[in-house]
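task queued by scheduler; priority normal; single chain, no ligands, no partner chains; default sampling; output format set to structure tokens
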Amino acid sequence: MAVNNKVKSTNDLELKDRLVAINRVTKVTKGGRTFSFAAIVVVGNEDGIVGWGLGKAGEVTTAIAKGVEAAKKNLVKVPVYKGTIPHEQLAKFGGAQVFIKPATTGTGVKAGGAMRAVLESVGVTDVLAKSKGSSNPHNLVKATIAALCELRDPAMVAQNRGISVEKVFKG
């Protein structure tokens, strides 16, 4: 089931950016080696909106700035329910497979590296996460955001079933 949860406007959002990874790339030319940098960045308002971007430039700061601008262009809305996610979700991108699971209050964000940056940016405070397969930060970020995009809002599930939100979690 494809869910369209793209964010339309970024003007009124206070987005915080997190640097996930920087990769130094070398190009060998006749005159010697030329270095450039690729930065993957995650931005979010810590209230259900998150996006990622990739910036490439000759300097680290420029690459990060380009990554932030790219991230602001593909923001998505994620349902966050009482500081955690509504249900378990499994997603895959490339060789990276991620599994995210809701956790009780006080658990914290039990996730590593790239997944932690995405989950903290979206505003999740309690979650259990596991990554399998590739540890490539690019694919981990994309798989985590894919998993978050597939989450269903408890209010929408209750409305579709014709019951209250409390019954969704009890039944």
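post-processing summary
- The mean pLDDT is 89.
- The helical segments are 60-72, 113-122, 137-149, 154-161, 165-170.
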